[in-house]
Amino acid sequence: MLCITIYSQSKKSKDIQSIKSMCGCFEIEFNFAETFVFSEKDDYQKSKTYKARALEWGQLILDEKNKISIQHLLIVGSKQFPSIVKHWRQDWIYQNTDLYLYDKNDKWSYISLDKKDVKGQWTQKVFQVDDSPRYEGSASWIHRDGKSYWENTTPAPLPRREFSKRSDYNVTIRGNRHEITSDGWIHDQDNKKIQKEDDSQFVLAHEKGYSTYTKVPDSECKAAVDWWDKNGSKWKMVRDKWDIIYSSNKDLTLKPTVDDKKLYSYLFSPSIDEKNEIDSTIDMFLMD
Hints:
Blueprint: H1 2-20, E1 24-37, E2 50-63, E3 67-77, E4 82-94, E5 98-104, E6 107-112, E7 122-127, E8 133-139, E9 141-144, E10 147-156, H2 160-163, E11 171-181, E12 184-196, E13 201-215, H3 222-246, E14 252-253, H4 263-267, H5 275-283
Antiparallel strand pairs: 1-2, 1-13, 2-3, 3-4, 4-7, 5-6, 6-14, 7-8, 9-10, 10-11, 11-12, 12-13
Helix pairs in contact: 3-5
């Protein structure tokens, strides 16, 4: 029994170290390509191969025994006049039993997992730029043969690079692999583009994603660190509001727009920075 306890503690410590390895300053290269197509339409057009580079800061915003939260901030523009874009957020929760799984069309279904099914696992919860839900899934970190990685497959909304361009599918089944490397980490994806209806679904195409995060000196991301120092308190209030919503443990449906504006358009406005304004803005997007 003692040996098992020591091994378990050592394994969890390695898990935490791997998760925190995704914090810091990184040069990123995004690569996405549609591979296999299953559409029977003669006029079907594959998505163009997508390549992009970016500089991003991963800010550790919560570091608890069983929960770690990392906020990602993009740095765009010149080095002399950088601009900061609040990007995605990832929360990691140990042996978590509460999940919001994406259904379709801005709806997430709440499910409760059995404790024995998530023993030793970590849930990765990924959030949109406005801290609304995106996708989440539970799996174990693997540390073998000199590699540390986490793999999970879960449904998700369309990626930002496609949701305004494609209407022939409404769900992405994301096969995610996060692997820690000697110089950063890799986000390796094997995705399926799904057209989902209430009683059926059709696989439109497969997609390969391969994004590399190469560590660079933290000083190169100073603009993002300074931005978060000034704006972090506002986004703490946004997260607090969402935490209340998520804690209801009920299915969640969001309005895609209110008065032709996305939620992030409202929350990104400097004029909305008080708790009551933030709460009421988010409430506008909740469906009964």
